[in-house]
Hints:
By secondary structure, the protein is α/β, with parallel strands linked by helices. The protein has 2 domains: 1-36, no CATH class; 37-320, Metallo-beta-lactamase, Chain A (4-Layer Sandwich). The protein is built from 12 helices and 14 strands. It has a 7-stranded mixed beta sheet with strand order 1-2-3-4-5-6-7, covered by helices on one side. A 5-stranded mixed beta sheet has the order 8-9-10-11-14, with no helix packed on it. Strands 12-13 form a two-stranded antiparallel sheet. The protein starts with a helix and ends in a 6-residue tail after the last helix.
Amino acid sequence: MLDDVRRLRPARTMHLLCQVAVDAPAVVVALHLEALLPRDARPGRAPDPRFDDLLLQPVGAFVEFQPLASTVTDNFFYLLHHGGDAILVDPVDAGVAIRAVRQLNPARVRILVTHGHPDHIAGNDEVVAALGCEVLAPAVAERWPTRHDLGLRDGDRIELGGEPIEIRHAPGHTDDHIIAIADGFVASGDLWFVGGCGHTRAGGHLPSLFDSFRRMSALPGHLRILPGHHYAAQNLAFCADLFPEDEALAARLTAARNWRREEGPWLPTLDEERAYNPFHRFADPRVEARLKTRYADLLDPTLRDPEERTFSALRRARDLFVAAAP
Ligand SMILES: [Fe+2]
């Protein structure tokens, strides 16, 4: 847990560690970790119009960013910034989003939407009304009830402060889903999560989800994932159930079960995810072998591609999995 905080917020973490050394009790750790989030994002507290905790951190060579916790859903969303230019990714909580942007006070701000599920687009109209920003959304966004200004397609490029952000169509969780790739990060929406991936139960398509995973498997491993949710405890419980002999995975699961929302989402790199997330390991024969012993009935013999057969069985197994109580 502290490793993740330290990686992203060195200055604040140093302050935190100093306080831990002086004050020792665990409650002090909790209070300072809570301080890492915007004041308005802390559950159970009245919004603070001063929003004085905006602490953008670098991600990659040029962009700085801030994770923001929605207070109206379980989502996390992101404020990206470079050179006076800002992008809100999936700002479902308009209040938190608007206060963050006003604190930053960029010359320009836009909204970038990964897909049309309500917990990703519900804040758009209120943010647009308050900030007058454009909405960049998948090209099918004309079907959505909220405003959009620019339809994005696979291979399109947008800019943030003059630096490129590449758009990739990554359907499967929904048919409209896009991800945004820049130097240092991937805004992955509900495609990738810590230890798992998006489901296909709300307008999704499993073969497309596999195709998206395979096409994106060539992306560089240093890219940090900015996901729309933090479901690490549930996902890692599934992973640990599949590979109970993996001690590193068990330790990661323990950390996930001790995680508090106030800490913000874990933001692993693609390489880190590829080491333990079985959905990225569809070509690993050890995953297929384990599925044969645990979920043989889910391996669809009509799928001739063994990698797709493995991935599809994993997704079905995850849907059936009910994590045991910790
Ligand atoms: Fe979604």
